[in-house]
Structures are given as structure tokens and as C-alpha cells.
Amino acid sequence: MIPAMPATATSARRASVTALRFGRVSMAGAFAALILFAGVWGSWGTAQHVMLVKGRETGTVEVTRCAGDTCTGPFTPTSAGARPRARVEIAHSVAVRTGATYDVVLKPGSGDAVRSGPAGILYAWLPLDGALLLAAVVVAGGMRLVRPAWVLGLSGAVLLTAAFVALQ
Q1: Is the whole model's pTM more than 0.90, yes or no?
Q2: What is the dihedral angle through the alpha carbons of 36, 38, 39, 44, rounded to the nearest 10 degrees?
Q3: Which of 167, 168, 149 is nearest to 157 (CA)?
């Protein structure tokens, strides 16, 4: 027969298990929040130009040449106050092809262009989409919150799929 543990030992064990659980959940929550914050931070640098277009130069660029990480082409304005330019740069990605024309917004004070419209918005928020997927794993594993993890993961997957479809 196994002797029974004294009541003080049982309550001390219960308190330590509760403290460890609280520590695990709080650390996983802080880590998930950090991941999501980093996703927003990584996306906002481009997303602000795409989403807040009032007062910015908007138009189209016909990609004539791609080399390395950038593609170039002439800019044709569509907004009042914008001026045509012989050469602007747009980031070279799998969604930018030579000979194609894209709706763009110019970053203030530069010749750098970012895609605009629904495709540009979805593309700008790609870092957040990945952060949602990663945070879902942390929330499910570290916090043991399965339903919120599914919401985060499915949100990230839907946004990634929408960006893929919009950029084609």
C-alpha cells in the first residue's frame, strides 16, 4: 500500500502545476503577440502606400526590363497632379512580368512604385498572412487554444490563397 501524501504536499504540488501552466500560457501568448506584431510591422511599410493613396501619385507602369531585384518601366499617371516619368522601379517578384502593365502608387519623393488595387493590398499584407499561420501553431501548441488557433490559421491560409489568385 502506498502511503497518502500529506495535504500540504498536495496543495504545494497543485500550486506549482498551476504556476507552470500560467507561465507556459503567458509566454506562448506573448510570443504569439510578438509574431503578429512583427507581421503587421513588416507589412505596413508597403501597405501604407497602397491603402492610403490620397495625395499620392497613382498610375500605371509598363515593365520593360527586369534585372536582379527590380523591374523598370515608364510611368503613366492617372491621378491629378501626377507627372509622367520615363523610368520608375517596381520590386521584381513572381507576380511581375516583362511586358505587362500594372496599376501602381509611387512612394513619396522617390521613383519607387508599389502595386495598387486589390492585388497590391493583398501582396502588401503577405508578411502578416505568414505571421497568422505561425501564430496559429504557437497558440495551439503553447496555449492549448485550438479554436482560436484554427481561426488564425484559416485566416492566414485564406489571405495567402487570395493573394496568390489576385496576383495571377
Answers
A1: no
A2: 130
A3: 149
Helix axis angle, 117-124 to 7-51, nearest 10°: 150
pLDDT tens string 143-158? 999 999 999 999 999 9
Length of the chain: 168
> Which residue, 88, 93, 40, 30, is CA-closest to 64?
88
Place of cell 501604407: 48
- Determine the residue type at 30: A
Residue 114 pairs with which residues in a beta bridge? 105
- In one letter, which amino acid is 27? M
Q: Are 163 and 123 in contact (CB under 8 A)?
A: yes
Per-residue pLDDT tens digits for 63-84: 999 988 999 999 999 988 889 9
